[in-house]
Design goal:
The chain has helices spanning about 1-35, 40-75, 85-140. The chain has about 160 residues and is an all-alpha fold.
Length: about 160
């Protein structure tokens, strides 16, 4: 049993490193958004996508390990609290707590980036609206040539 728990701990440590990389990328995306470096944002998002694919693969392995532990312990569902009180289980719990802290920080950073992006999109939309109004005004003034036209006022 301890061997499975040690494998789980190693897997979660790998995931923790991947999520740290995502956190670094998220912070870089925020900086690039603030600087208006859209090509850099695009490159960082591509890196994020590749890391997410690795995380998905790692999560599949972790799911397999959790299922194996669940079966060996005869549990209805996997639960950290139902693991035997061993050093390996204590280490796993600590690793998962640390991973949760990283995930919380990542979520906060992603939310901040989303807010920045929303503000930037709103600013661009406002500029486009202003540009459209200016274009309509210019079009109105550049209407048909009235120099040859004559207006006749009639008094009644």
């Amino acid at each position: 049993m301890d061997e499975l728990i040690v494998q789980m701990d190693a897997g979660y440590r790998t995931m923790m490193q991947l999520y740290r990389e995502l956190l670094g990328l998220a912070e870089s995306v925020g900086e690039s958004l603030a600087a208006g470096e859209w090509k850099e944002v695009d490159a960082l998002l591509a890196k994020k996508q590749s890391i997410m694919q690795v995380i998905d693969g790692q999560e599949a392995e972790m799911s397999r390990l959790r299922e194996e532990v669940r079966e060996q312990l005869g549990l209805d569902s996997f639960s950290l609290s139902q693991l035997p009180e061993t050093a390996a289980a204590a280490q796993l719990k600590g690793t998962i707590e640390e991973l949760m802290d990283i995930l919380d920080e990542l979520q906060e950073t992603e939310q901040a980036n989303e807010a920045k992006l929303r503000r930037l999109v709103a600013a661009v939309q406002a500029e486009l609206k202003e540009f459209d109004l200016g274009r309509k005004a210019a079009k109105a003034y550049a209407g048909p040539d009235l120099r040859g036209s004559r207006f006749i006022d009639q008094k009644k």
